[in-house]
Specification:
Helix 5 packs parallel to helix 8. A hairpin with a 6-residue loop joins strand 3 and strand 4. This protein has 8 helices and 8 strands; from the N terminus they run H-H-H-E-E-E-E-H-E-H-E-H-E-H-E-H. The longest helix has 22 residues. It is globular, with a radius of gyration of 20 Å. The protein has 2 domains: 96 residues, no CATH class; 95 residues, Dna Topoisomerase Vi A Subunit, Chain: A, domain 2, CATH 3.40.1360. The protein has a 4-stranded antiparallel β-sheet. With 239 residues, it is of the alpha/beta class. This is DUF6371 domain-containing protein.
Amino acid sequence: MHKCINCIKHMENMENQDLKRISAAKAAPNDRILIDIPKLGIGCHYSSLTDYLDKAVDYNPKMLSAIDYLIMRFHLGAVTKLVNGHHGTVLPRISRNDKVVGGSVLYFDTDSGVALRRESLVEHLYSWYCFDYYTDDEVFFGEHLLSNKPVAIVQEEKTALLGTLAEPSIDWLAVGEGCNLTDDMMAKLEGKRVVLFPDDMNYDYWTEKFKGRFKVDNGFIQHDINEYLIDKIRSRGRP
């Protein structure tokens, strides 16, 4: 009988905790950010994307060291879940005040670099953090690394990483999906030298929305920007 009472109390405590979590969905707008997650807790882990990057640089020792540094700077992580034998890659979105405010888990084919599946980062951290108010969708991937360098904006996180390896004199930002680029995101970059590199899927949208204020480069509408960057990386890695 004593054990049953303890079980009932435990269940009541669990229910109360769940109610508190659900009630948090009514948080005031100013409180609507993801609870701070230590970046070191998700950093420095190898995944399907880092395996792809290793292959892309032809396993050049100099560039492999650069990839290790890239993992630390972008706080790339990994999950144990597999898709077609490939570990998911944690791609956190980190704000300028160093808060993890969302992100994605992507599963890549390590040979081709094709994204097999995209999942929300918060689903892998805490199942009850899936409320939209915990994330800030208007933070670029790579935004926490913004400096006084010129800025390049691309669609895929993978492209931003390749760009950082190929041309480190530029700050590379990614939106994840072309339609996610907003006026508020671009307003953060006013006064900077910015070039947008859309692909054929988002060229019209980015041009219509931003060409008056920022340069929109059409050089990769018909050509794969990732292949171009890989060629530059391999040339950098040669003696």
